[in-house]
Amino acid sequence: MAENTEYEALTPETLAKRLSGIKVLNEKVGENSDLWEVAEIGDGNLNLVFIISGKNGKAIVKQALPYVRLVGESWPLPLYRAFYEYNALERMAQRHPGSTPEIYYFDDTQAIIVMEYLDEHTILRQKLIAGEKVQGLAEFLGQFCARTAFRGSELSMQSANKKSDVALFSGNVEIPAITEALVFTDPYYEAEQNHHTKQLDRLISVLRRDVGLKIKVQKALQRFVSNSETMIHGDLHSGSIMCTDQTSRVIDPEFVQYGPMGFDVGMLCANFFMAYFSQPAHRQSGLEEYQEWILNIILEIFDVFNAEFRVLWANERRGLLYPPVLFEDQDHDAMAACEIVLKDIWSDAWTYCGIEMHRRCLSLAHNADFEEISNSVERASLEARNIEMGAHLIRSAGAFDNAAEVCEVARAHNRRDFL
Ligand code: SR1
Ligand code: MG
Question: Which of 25, 126, 133, 291 is deepest in the core (most CB within 10 A)?
Fold first, then answer.
């Protein structure tokens, strides 16, 4: 890397000169950095993302900024998140090979990760807004969530490795703090940075007066901050997944921490439910068919997650939890224990799902599924369905036996007018 020993944000003008000495970029993009074309394509809330094109091909350079891009320099954010993201990507690649972009290079001081350019991939959220389908999406995501959950826990890891990994990631303090505030706390009171569609005023005020619901959310937050059972992506929404028509990859795990097994899959399902509820504003033709396709993704994620988790339970249970010496070796049914663990994961997941559905309409960082609806009356009516469904999930999370029951609740909310 360049001679800079102090952090300096890259620009499209400075990037080629500053990164010209990185061997892997010379291989992947081209030897003569004067010929590189550089564009800044970051549209997320936090970082700079550059695409470099050259004679040999393309690469992505992601650089953390020392503040929240969405808000500005008034909200400082540590650069060290790039270190955690890099380590998370390495572990995800081990736990689910091929699920993430290949990492070419990492520079701690400059908070830079150089990675594979995912040719022809676009952000899943954009595909869902555009009504596009992705083959194998649910299978990929169900397997990703199950494998990372299982293989990052003491069901699989040796205790010493798990403990040192928990210690490593526990340095990632300020980034999970964003989730603790924006996801779990701010939606439920009039926090300064919140905003919402005006027509939702009354519905939101009723929601914020529901003490029982707030307690359930706080209990979920308690588990989020204190239950370090596996390494979670921490921000697995449809903007953290890139797809072609047939392949998918997970990106952006800078919100990584050790946390509850149900968190990622719950947040993921929330983003499909939000895509589902927002669809009437994005299309008329084929609306019902596409909405059902989205619900089927959730059903399939649930089935694939459970099936994969059972396979891992049967074949890879090498950690200290539920050891064969207590079950198989004594002719006791280990799979019955697995079902109980799965039931708890999904009860947690539906709670996190409901909370994520709330925060994207009530807190600081909304999502394009709803934000791109310019007619505020229409947006409010669709967001109202989403918010009410979120509340239903938080209140009843433990009562669902399967995703089919949850999807039925979504269909019922999709037919109702809550304003
Ligand atoms: C201030 S950051 C806002 C949101 O963007 C990230 O992608 C996370 O979802 C975070 O909550
Ligand atoms: Mg992100």
Answer: 25
* pLDDT tens by residue, 172-208: 999 999 999 999 999 999 999 999 999 999 999 999 9
68 CB near ligand 1 (under 6 Å): yes
Residue the block writes with tokens 């555009």: 130
Domain count, the chain: 2
Q: Which residues contact 396 (CB under 8 A, 6 or more apart)?
A: 350
Residue 378 included in any domain: yes
What is the CA(31)–ligand 2 centre distance, in A? 31
* Ligand 1 atom nearest to CA at 183: 11
87 C-alpha to ligand 2 centroid (Å): 15
Give dist(CA 287, CA 280) in Å, integer: 7
Q: Which residue in 99, 126, 122, 128 sits closest to 272, CA to CA?
A: 128
Taking only the tens place, the pLDDT of each residue in 70-80 is 999 999 999 99
**Single-letter amino acid code for the residue at 380:** A
CATH classification of the domain holding 30 = 3.30.200.20
Q: Does pLDDT of 1 surpass 80?
A: no
Q: Which of 64, 87, 116 is the last residue of a domain?
A: 116
Consecutive H or E run containing 374: none
Return the axis-axis angle of helices 287-315 and 262-282, rounded to nearest 10°.
170
CA distance 114 to 133: 29
Ligand 1 center–CA 343 separation, angstroms:
29
Q: Which residue minimizes the CA distance to atom 8 of ligand 1? A: 235
210 within a domain of the structure (yes/no) = yes
**369 part of a folded domain:** yes
Given 94, 116, 138, the domain boundary residue is 116
